[in-house]
Predict the structure.
Amino acid sequence: MSKQILIVDDSASIRQMLSFTLKAAGYLVDEAADGREGLGKAQSKAYHLVFTDQNMPNMDGLSLIRSLRGLPNYRATPILMLTTESSDAMKQQGKSAGATGWLVKPFDPPKLLEVTRKVLP
């Protein structure tokens, strides 16, 4: 069975690049344009991995991570931040919220796949 991945980012071009990279590697991918939409999708379907941006309308990435970690199905699910934010303070906030890891945009597709394979059980 292929692993289900949710991409949450307000940038359509980032979602498309991520989706293309992950689908080419054999993963099943769904997309959401902001944290609120991503949370709704996560509540209706089980994902093996979630990628989220930080700066989005309606619900930012840290709020999404906290909300996901409050759901029984997502307590141990890997959640990776993929964002332009790279400060140590922001990374610490991500870790405190429950992020599994942090990738900085623009992303390198081979590195993204390496990290994906590393965090998926």
Observations:
- Residues 17 and 109 are 9 Å apart (CA to CA).
- Strands lie at 4-8, 28-32, 49-52, 79-83, 101-104.
